[in-house]
């Protein structure tokens, strides 16, 4: 589903991604862990071209962007639509209800009919457990509820891959579980997911593969058992000791 080849990203002099190679098969959940500043968010943002990589290739399904040469601008919107992004701070439109937030993309970007978009938004809000909150504005919702709207909004665009950038980091501890549950349900339904998170329990329970990044490279990868119980690299061990 996703194939990343020798991906580099540099901000001015700062080399943030230094040759990332990664493949994610359809239906798999990859959890990316690593210290702050290791490039995890930048990798996700490159995957949906919120950041323009400096060089390398990203293929998602049958669409390929090769950043070693000038990428034609017209290729980017359809590429971006392959992925749905969930942000740490939800990024909902504050002046729109939950329902309107979810309808916005399908109607304005994809040109879906309002009635169809509304039906889909209602269905998605039900799916994330917010069927009774469809007319609530973000300020009337808890952080966990807002983030569930954020997930429903990304799903409304019918992406092939869901990208999660520390989706529970801004939440009070008691609200983390409800968001992780929605993510686990999605994983169980076969959604392909790349998740940057500090929730090691989620990684243990839901990941098919865990990627440990440090200093802009993938230091180690493996299934959760290998990474958490039997890490090979000193840097992975050190990181896990610090957080567990
Ligand atoms: P992580 O998600 O692992 O914490 P990030 O991808 O957010 O790491 O950041 C990696 C490095 O890139 C950091 O040093 C950060 O300051 C830098 N960085 C991220 N975005 C930008 C930007 N837009 N401009 C300049 N530097 C950036």
The overall average pLDDT, rounded, is: 96
Residue stretches low in confidence (pLDDT < 50, at least 5 long) are: none
Shape, per Cα inertia axes: globular
**Series of H and E elements:** EEEHEEHEHHHEHEHEEHH
What is the count of helical runs?
Answer: 9
- Give the oligomeric state: single chain
User: How many strands, which pairing sense, and closed or not: the largest β-sheet?
Assistant: 6 strands, mixed
Distance between the termini: 32 Å
Supply the helix-strand structural class. alpha/beta
Radius of gyration (CA) equals: 18 Å
In terms of DSSP E residues, the strand content is: 25-35%
Q: Tell me roughly what share of residues is in helical segments.
A: 25-40%
Strand order within the widest beta sheet: 6-7-8-3-9-10
Ions and ligands: adenosine-5'-diphosphate
What's the β-strand tally? 10
Your description of this structure?
It comes from Cytobacillus oceanisediminis. GO terms for molecular function: ABC-type amino acid transporter activity; ATP binding; ATP hydrolysis activity. It holds the Pfam family ABC_tran. This is Cystine transport system ATP-binding protein. The protein is α/β, with parallel strands linked by helices and 244 residues long. Helices cover 38% and strands 25% of the residues. The protein is built from 9 helices and 10 strands. The protein has helices at 40-47, 76-80, 98-109, 114-127, 143-156, 173-188, 200-206, 224-229, 234-243, and strands at 2-11, 14-24, 29-33, 55-60, 63-66, 83-86, 161-165, 192-196, 209-214, 217-222. Strands 6-7-8-3-9-10 form a 6-stranded mixed sheet, sandwiched between helices. Strands 2-1-4-5 form a 4-stranded antiparallel sheet, with helices on one face. Strand 9 (209-214) and strand 10 form a beta hairpin. Helix 3 packs across helix 4, helix 3 packs parallel to helix 5 (143-156) and helix 4 (114-127) crosses helix 5. The two termini are 32 Å apart. 41% of the residues are buried. Adenosine-5'-diphosphate (ADP) binds at residues 11, 14, 16, 34, 36-42. The site of adenosine-5'-diphosphate has 11 residues, from strand 2 and helix 1.
């Amino acid at each position: 589903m996703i194939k990343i080849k020798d991906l580099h990203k540099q901000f001015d002099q700062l080399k943030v991604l230094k040759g990332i190679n990664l493949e994610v098969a359809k239906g798999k959940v990859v959890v990316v862990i690593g210290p702050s500043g290791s490039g995890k968010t930048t990798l996700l943002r490159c995957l949906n071209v919120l950041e323009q990589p400096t060089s390398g290739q990203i293929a998602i399904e049958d669409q390929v962007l090769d950043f070693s040469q000038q990428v034609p601008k017209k290729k980017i919107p359809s590429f971006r639509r392959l992925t749905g992004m969930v942000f740490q701070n939800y990024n909902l439109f504050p002046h729109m209800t939950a329902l309107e937030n979810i309808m916005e993309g399908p109607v304005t970007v994809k040109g879906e009919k309002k009635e169809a978009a509304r039906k889909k938004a209602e269905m998605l809000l039900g799916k994330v457990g917010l069927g009774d909150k469809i007319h609530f504005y973000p300020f009337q919702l808890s952080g966990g509820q807002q983030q569930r709207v954020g997930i429903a909004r990304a799903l409304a665009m019918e992406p092939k891959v869901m990208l999660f950038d520390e989706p529970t980091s801004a939440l009070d501890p008691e609200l983390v579980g409800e968001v992780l549950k929605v993510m686990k349900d999605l994983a169980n339904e076969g959604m392909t997911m790349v998740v940057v998170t500090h929730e090691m329990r989620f990684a243990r329970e839901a990941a098919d593969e865990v990627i440990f990044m440090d200093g802009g490279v993938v230091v180690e990868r493996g299934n959760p058992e290998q990474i958490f119980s039997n890490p090979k690299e000193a840097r992975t061990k050190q990181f896990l000791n610090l957080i567990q």
